[in-house]
Design a protein that fits this description.
mainly alpha; elongated; 68 residues; 3 helices
Amino acid sequence: MSTSKWTEQALRARLRADVAVTAAGRHVSAADAARRLEYLRIVAGVDAGAISPDAGAALFDEMSIARG
C-alpha cells in the first residue's frame, strides 16, 4: 500500500487549481507562467512535507479564486 501526504480535500483543491492554471491555452503570458510555477511549488511542497495538505488546499483554493 502506498502512502501519500495528500488528503482528499487537498487533491480536490489541487485539481481545481490545475484546471484554473491550465485554462490559459497555448499562448501563455508571464502572469500565467508565474501561476503555473506557484502551482508546481505548492505540489512539490506538499509532496516533500514542507507544506501541510490543509495549507496546500488553502493555497490552491486561493489560486482558483484569483483565476476565476
